[in-house]
């Protein structure tokens, strides 16, 4: 009779639960029983583990074998338990000293030939192990850099089960090198087909600058450029409306590059989500720039907010966590999918309830909506090129619900670029570097003001706190309050104007918003001219 135990991690969303893997050998007919609420992929590990152990040169015990995963009440899914199951079995058969295994967390899938393959969610799994007090983890060699991001953890990266057996048994470690001239299948990555990673859901930021994308490339569009800068400085959601070719997508693509780089804590949050989704860039385990996610308008509600069959996976709102979610051709999205965004916009996270349990994903993102004014895209107040009937235009614009638009702080019309603007020698505006410096300085001012508070940006501060703690200059809110009385603004809209005014004040260096800051915020909210300069640089 033999018994051994080791540990692995079960992931529930981006949170992990340490699972004790126990193996028990008893005399009797040879059998392998796996208990502890495993799913189908985990149940199939019995065959993978047996083949891997035999092909690694170890003897498979010909006894009654029971492997238990504790706590049994926690659902367990995926192939990441293979390495722990194999080690526990080898410990129970005394191929490995069981005492060596008890304080080690093992994460990895086994191939039939004994190779250790990577799995999704290495970073959140190691974070869960560290929070539970464990100090040693064993992971696939190609995922060791990702696991090493967690401080205070000793990481052992192995390429094969044979290597792990040698290390734990204090034997010479075999050199397992990939075949020369052939790609290493273990380094192929874990990108999942159908996630849109190659066509829209991708990490941007510094990558955009590497591709030569600069804010100075946008000709004209002073109001839209100002709105983009204000959105980046305060984390405000943005709605761009205008005809095709006016520059809406160009502006959205350049927004991540002017956002500040992620802090260490934010980087770990973003990396954990992308690790679970299988979207970590090859050779770069830590995501340290703001992500940029642009799903196609045919995306379903599950693709936007998360979910799916079986284990719930993060959606676009979570892949854009701490970054930008760009919805181009917004009226073409399904109404249910758009309305599902309202909850994460307010809460900063998504809760997905399934019969197997409840999963929570982070979703603090900056949303940018872009839309044509009508189905043909040529409707304008200044010309009559549009041939769409008025009823068709109203129905098209009504696809964006009032409750969703009320949560958008900045609404800007992006007009066509004129011939004179294109032909001007000095048509190029401020560069990304210049605008990014102002945004970073504005964020620092807000950080000092919000020190000791649970909020990081002006867009997160509740309206009641703004009205009670941080007051605008005397008389600065008069025009905004008159707009509230006339029905131009809702009470929520008034609070959002005040938040934007604080962001503008941070950009221009004011101690608190004055009438100019509030009127500019009001103009960016309503689109009604207020006679103030639209360029932040002109106000500094």
TrEMBL record:
SUPFAM superfamilies associated with the record: P-loop containing nucleoside triphosphate hydrolases (SSF52540), Ribosomal protein S5 domain 2-like (SSF54211)
Gene3D superfamilies: 3.30.230.10, P-loop containing nucleotide triphosphate hydrolases (3.40.50.300)
InterPro entries xref list: AAA+_ATPase, CHLI-like, Mg_chelat-rel, Mg_chelat-rel_C, Mg_chelatse_chII-like_cat_dom, P-loop_NTPase, Ribosomal_Su5_D2-typ_SF, Ribsml_uS5_D2-typ_fold_subgr
Source domain of life: Bacteria
Domain AAA+ ATPase, chain residue ranges per copy: 234-418
SMART domains to which the protein is assigned, alphabetical: AAA
Example of a GO MF term: ATP binding
Entries under PANTHER family matching the protein: COMPETENCE PROTEIN COMM, MAGNESIUM-CHELATASE SUBUNIT CHLI
UniProt record similarity statement: Belongs to the Mg-chelatase subunits D/I family. ComM subfamily.
Protein name according to UniProt: AAA+ ATPase domain-containing protein
Natural source organism: Streptomyces capitiformicae
Biological classification of the source: Bacteria, Bacillati, Actinomycetota, Actinomycetes, Kitasatosporales
